[in-house]
Design a protein that fits this description.
The chain has about 375 residues and is α/β, with parallel strands linked by helices. It is built from 13 helices and 13 strands. The chain has two domains: about 5-45 and about 275-370, Aspartate Aminotransferase, domain 1 (Alpha-Beta Complex); about 50-275, Type I PLP-dependent aspartate aminotransferase-like (Major domain) (Aspartate Aminotransferase, domain 2, 3-Layer(aba) Sandwich). The chain has helices spanning about 5-10, 20-30, 50-60, 70-80, 95-105, 120-125, 145-155, 175-185, 245-250, 260-270, 275-295, 320-330, 355-370, and strands at about 35-40, 90, 110-115, 130-135, 160-165, 190-195, 220-225, 240, 300-305, 310-315, 335, 335-340, 350-355. The model is unreliable at about 1-20 and about 375-379 (pLDDT under 50).
Length: about 375
Amino acid sequence: MMSLDDKIERDYQSIPPHGGNLVRAAMEYGLAPQDFLDFSANINPLGPSPSVVEAIKDNLWQICHYPDPDCRSLKSALAEHLGVDGRYLLVGNGVSELIYLLARVFSFRRALIPAPTFSEYAQAVKAAGGEVSYVFMDSSLDFPFPLDDVLRRIPVVDVIFLCNPNNPTGGLISHRELQLLLEAAAAYQVMVIVDEAFMDFVPDPQSYSLLSLAGRHQNLVLLYSLTKILAIPGLRLGVLAARPDIVGALGGSRDPWSVNALAQVAGVAGLKDREYIKATREMVTREREFLFRELSSLPGLRPLPGAANFILVDISGTQYAAGELVRRLGYRGVLVRNCANFPGLSEGYIRVAVKRREDNLRLLEALREVLGGTSHQQK
């Protein structure tokens, strides 16, 4: 009988990256979708709040009616939750829709993006006919935010995209750095777009979030995700916060039905469940520390410190490139993110989500099998 390693070597060249989709992964690795643990997607490990599930069940009747194009109930709940005037808010079908909408409506000619970071900023700008330039973070220093390099490039761009905390590094940008950047960008009428999609997982979000400044700066646009914290990627729910003129320009150029009725219901119910959000933050903080410590003990792995619900891992000390390590774990029913397609990264990095303790233990056991480490009792 062919061994697992022989099977992997036979199939290595023919299997493309799975991209985090369970159906596609099932086709590639020969397992049922429900048999996978997906560490490649950074979603709330607690799953949807029970109140969200019940709200969806109670409102299934709404699917035979058009949704509210203005998302009034959800916008009201968001205004209370975020402390932001509802006039400054625009709800979208996930943050990705809002990113592409910004690029299309404002026709950015030259975008500046610190990298590595979320790839859809660049894709959206290029799709709208703009050009992208990168400022690369220093990998030897674990990817700190390159403030000085960004400040030097402001005069020759018209938009800057930032991710805070950053995906995939997990690093945070301080209020001081952001304030300096906003002031410099305003002098050149450069728009600053700050994506806070993972801010809800940060232990002390109010110390880093700029949502309290929404509407106060002409050139500031903030993005916020309910998809991640409420664990509803199948429904999609993103929020933009900016001055009313920006919100109005964007709102007048979009599909009025992009946010479906059940997504709006789920958002309202999830925002009311404060205990669920608090429990999520506490659990992610605890499990991130546990997973970081255990990953550090495995041969060849160097996890990078971060503040989000995922960890970037330097695997250059192992015998594997990221693509092969991803595949070897995939055959064991564990999906992780190959980070080779992030500008500024290489085949020497993977990203893993932070999950529940029992799931994190399964990831660690799969990594030990692949890397040849010995199993030990976890506390």
